[in-house]
Amino acid sequence: MAFEDMWEALRPIGRADGGGYRRFSWTAADRECRAWFTEEARSRGLTVERDPNGNLFAWWDAEKNTGASMGGLIASVASIAADAMTGDFHGEPVTGRRDAVLTGSHLDSVPDGGAYDGPLGVVSAFAAIDLLRERGATPRRPIGVAVFAEEEGARFGVACLGSRLATGAIDPARARGLRDADGVTWGEAMAAEGYDPDAIGADPQLLSLNCFVELHVEQGRALTAPVGLASAIWPHGRWRFDFTGEADHAGTTRLADRRDPMLPFARTVLAAREAAARHDAVATVGKVRVTPNGVNAIPSSVAAWLDARAPSEEAVRATVADVRAAAREAAGRDRVEVSLSEESYTEVVDFHADLRDRLAKTLGDPPVLPTGAGHDAGILSAHLPTAMLFVRNPTGVSHAPAEHAELTDCLAGVEALADVLDELACR
């Protein structure tokens, strides 16, 4: 089947020795993923475009279904921005991208991440288009498949960076200056791949679409049916702590003379766990940089990143406030300086109720559940109706090699997505 063939072609790209994936933005693995996407799109006669922010799109245009071939590409973003046509998912279908239905997800990964987080939504989108064509369906409004850049934030630190840029949710100057662990900026990495970093920013085409539906593997154990619908995304964010002490010799410096930033860092990690339990939240310190990172040297500094999420914004903010207070108290005790900066924050996302209800009716009332994981659909939701489909994950594990979805559930997800695209774009 097309789904299995695509999955097997994508599976080896960026796979690490431990079985997980390292598909980081603007790397060789990312380049291979983009080439795979372009080849799959063009093999289906879809128009491939890239926006200035590094996001990719493949389009099945309504106007091409009157008998002409799928070649003959679409208007530029500038002409689309000047087009006066408008539409929403309740309205009458019109031609042009301003009324398009978009699906897709992302292809980048966290360090040693699983195979399904992101790619499942992209592969399923192409497979859903194949299924619609097998059924003889033709879109009355365009259908697009998206790959959003830097969704995980694994290299440059800000999650959903591609969709944040395209929606104007992050200042382009800040985005250009984001640095990876080696000091390479987002702007420099983009330029090396042939993009103009000065051109990044809000995309009028994306902001004028009809709706966006993202299919994603469920990242927990809450879904017991093959396919479910998302009700909401918890508020969540990332904060950076910088502990600055004094480097010295590990063997000759008395304990009383040390200004070791590792000590308040360690106490802060424990405080994060305690604060999360206190506020019915989740908090994780999963990324740390130690300088100079020598076995026989007292560190001069420790940078650590806190990820906090909860069902309510109040719980997230209270958790972070408690962790900040604990970090300051611990740093003072050990004569270490500490600073805290917020790198990204996403408020609670309640998915568009009318769109969700319409999809629930189309799919026969599947389970509806919230999620603590962030997604590009959550960023886009501030600008257009969005919805999410989840495919069951029997292990409940995500962001790790054990992440999994059974083939039968994946195919059920493809069929569900095809039904949704048929309802929104073809009928």
Automatic annotation (TrEMBL):
Keywords: Hydrolase, Metal-binding, Zinc
Binding site for Zn(2+) 2: 117, 152, 399
Cofactor: Zn(2+)
Binding sites annotated in the UniProt record for Zn(2+) 1: 106, 117, 216
Pfam families noted in UniProt: Peptidase_M20
Superkingdom classification of source: Bacteria
The keyword Zinc belongs to this UniProt entry's keyword annotation: yes
Record GO terms (molecular function): hydrolase activity, acting on carbon-nitrogen (but not peptide) bonds, in linear amidines; metal ion binding
Binding residues annotated for allantoate, in chain numbering: 238, 296, 309
Cross-referenced InterPro entries: Amidase_Cbmase, Bact_exopeptidase_dim_dom, Peptidase_M20
Entry keyword annotation includes Hydrolase: yes
The record's free-text note on cofactor binding: Binds 2 Zn(2+) ions per subunit.
PANTHER family, A to Z: ALLANTOATE AMIDOHYDROLASE, ALLANTOATE DEIMINASE-RELATED
Family stated for the protein in its record: Belongs to the peptidase M20 family.
Name this protein carries in UniProt: Zn-dependent hydrolase
Species, as recorded: Actinoallomurus iriomotensis
